[in-house]
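Notes from the 1:1 (GR / supervisor)

We went over the backlog. Supervisor wanted to see one worked example end to end before approving the batch request, so GR pasted a single chain during the call. The sequence is below; no edits were made to it. Supervisor asked that the structure be written out right there so they could see what the output format looks like.
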Amino acid sequence: MNSYTRATITAVFAYALWGCGAPAPDADPSGDTTAAALSQPNGGLTTTDEAPDFGDPAVAALPELSTAVGVDALLDEGGSYAGDAVAAPQRHVYRVMVLWGHLPRPQDGAAAALPAAPAAPIDWTGSLAVDGGRLSVRRTLAFDRGDSVAARTDPARVDFVSRTEPFVDGMALTVRADGPSPVLHFRTAAATLDLALPDADGAVHYLADGRNGVFYSAYEESATCRQGFVFGHWSRIRSQLGLFRGRVLDAGGAPAGAIRGLWGANRAGERVFFGKHISNRGVFDGLLGGAYDAGHFAGVWGLRDGQRGEMHGRYFDGVERADGRGPFLGRWRESCAAR
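Structure output shown during the call:
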């Protein structure tokens, strides 16, 4: 994050967690209602309970990570590897989400949509592996007919078949490493990468076409913090204005609620976002707010009791309306107790 973005986040934090009772904004044809809400405290969002998924068909239609593909047969009923001789306290445990496929570059200030490029199938068939540790497949994202996870024979490696066009595929993994800072080896027909754990919200690894690539989010598990991921759709209404809708995911990629909000430039010219997160049943869990810029977002993960956690990640907005699906992926963390 550059100094401009950090300053904007500081300004947003000053008021990002106090409700004002206004109705939650939604898409409007001109975008004027959404744009006006960006200059209100909390973006005009309330602290009331909602229907599950906000009663919003666009939220309900978001893909969930599925356990139907890639069930890890190497794990015993307690979630540990059979024959694993290293006790849990001696291990470093990392939670990882990896996305690959169409990741349109953000063009926040572009005034008009670019012509849509034809979607080209990309073959991502290959493997993920770790040295000096074990990995387990918790869930898969958007694996379609013909995609699959191979039967596991090596606890340090998973082989899979995956092909994408204008969408993304992905996996939620748990990595148990013998030492700190392990490296996850991504070896596929489309790309060969080494992904350091945990990540520092680093660069997207693009293919030569500049449109498809790999991004991952990872953190080390802690007994003092509740943590997880956010994943969803970062949609554009017009230049410097849009909405986001997503799922709150727990450490293993299971659904733990939903988020919905707005992003754009407020009257002061700051690039800000506001949102609200709810439980799977629609119970209000907290408000969130922060700043975005050049593909990064970061801010406060607010809780219903007034405590503040944090969140950050990457969005892939793009302006290719026909095939730019605009995913976002990031991490959330509640306030941590002292060790």
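Supervisor's comment: Residues 65-220 form one domain.
Batch request approved.
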